[in-house]
Amino acid sequence: MRAFLPLLLLVIVSGPAPLRGDDALNDALSRTSLDYAKRIETATGELNSVRESIAAERAPLMDEAARLEDRIIDLESQVSRLETAQARASDDHRRLRLEFDGLAKNLGYLNTLAQDNLKLTEATLLPGESAMYSDRIDGLRQVIEDPAHTLDIGPALDLSDLMIDHLRHLSGGYSQAGSSLVGEDNRVVKGTFAFFGPEVFFRTGQDGAAGTVRAGGGSLYPVTYPLPQWAPERAAAFFQGQDGTIVADASGGKALRLRETKGTLMQHIDKGGIVAYILIGLGGVSILISVLKVMDLRHLSVGDPRKVQELLAAVARGAKPEAQRLADAMTDTCRELFAVGMRHLGGPRAVLEEQLYAVNQRQRLFFERRLPLLAVIVTASPLLGLLGTVMGMVKTFALITVFGTGNAAKLSSGISQVLITTELGLMVAIPTLIIHSFLSHRTQDRLSLLERYTTEFVASAEQSRGAALAAGSPQP
């Protein structure tokens, strides 16, 4: 059909052909029509064949598409179920994680309590019990302090068994061989420990002497304090588990510990550390300065006020020899002041005032020296005591970090430094403040009196000068 259209257009453009070509044209058209008719028939057959093939293949494809759609729907359902299961699993995991974290915190808290209880148990062991429990305590310490056993409750249960065993031993008396340090001569002797409730007694294996036992502090051995009033034969029955008598300390060892804590003065100061010795040095300097200032104050004498008034009256009258005699009889401080005044009595008033002012300033500088150092000691001593207090608190908190708050004996050194430095600081500052105030007051009082005498001397000299001018004669 498409090939026939160009031929038709060619015929139309060419116009009417000659009559002699009509037959040829008709033949050509006929052949073309037949050719295209065959082609159309062939194409129609092919089209029908394709349609039949499409129709034949369409049904299986539709079935496959329907099956695939069902498969997609099934898979989407499975994905939805898996997503729901995943969300549920995430919630379960989050819940289990929270439960695990809570259990981990509780087990960590139990582990911390176990460590504190282990330290407390070790600290509360009676003297002589260390040999019995040392192996178990060391084993528990290694396990409890091991990070790998943080979530293990077994060590805490083992510690509970240890504490129960310790309480069971405390409830009933028992004895055990061991060694102790005898308090009198510091000898380590072997013998037998007898545990009777909170009390511990020791009987030497040599002479059978018995005594009460207390912890040795920094010593590896407990310390035995012999009891002479406890006869060896009476003590032997008790240590053999028979009926006997004991000599018990009604204070539970507090009297012995109190006697040990007193110590000497140097031991008391030594507990304060380096700050305590600095405060003692400041106290010594304060005492030395105070003694020197008291000696200076004895020389700062202003003399008898009546004699001073007689001298001033003689100067006002112009009786220079009498005034000189009275000035020579004055004490050191006033004698120096009036001697300078008598030397410049005939000069100008300005010169006389400057000379007397120079004497007063020289006296002030001499007698006020070292007083500022006392004031510095008054201020610095409490501050040094506070410094020692802070250092002791730092030491105490460091000990708390290491040993916890249950062991008061370990904290005593830091607390002692806190209290002793404060005590020494106040002991130095308070007396120094009183002495400084007393010396300053007495010094200022006497120097002020000298300044008053200076003013009165100048006034008397002017009065003498005025009387001489009024009489019309020059001043002698």
Q: How many separate helices?
A: 14
In percent terms, what proportion of residues is strand? Answer: 5-15%
Shape: flat
- Rg over CA atoms, rounded to whole Å, is 59 Å
Strand order of the largest sheet: 1-2-3-4-5
Order of helices and strands: HHHHEEEEEHHHHHHHHHH
Q: What integer is the average pLDDT?
A: 76
Regions with pLDDT < 50 over 5+ consecutive residues?
A: 1-20
Query: What is the structural class?
Result: alpha+beta
The percentage helix is: over 70%
What's the main sheet like?
5 strands, mixed, barrel
Measured between the Cα atoms of the first and last residue, the distance is 170 Å
Number of distinct beta strands: 5
Number of domains: 3
Overview of the structural elements:
The structure is a single chain. The protein is α+β, with helices and mostly antiparallel strands and 476 residues long. It folds into 3 domains: 4-103; 172-252, no CATH class; 273-471. The chain is 73% helix and 7% strand. The chain contains 14 helices and 5 strands. The chain has a 5-stranded mixed β-barrel with strand order 1-2-3-4-5. The protein is flat and about 190 Å long. It starts with a helix and ends in a 5-residue tail after the last helix.
Primary descriptors:
476 residues, alpha+beta, 3 domains, 5-stranded mixed barrel, 7% strand, disordered N terminus
Which helices and strands appear, and what pairs or packs with what?
Blueprint lengths: L3 H11 L7 H102 L6 H15 L9 H18 L2 E9 L5 E9 L2 E6 L5 E5 L8 E4 L5 H8 L14 H9 L2 H6 L2 H27 L5 H13 L2 H9 L3 H12 L5 H19 L3 H33 L4 H64 L5
Parallel strand pairs: 1-5
Antiparallel strand pairs: 1-2, 2-3, 3-4, 4-5
Helix pairs in contact: 2-3, 2-4, 3-4, 8-13, 8-14, 9-10, 9-14, 10-11, 11-12, 11-14, 12-14, 13-14
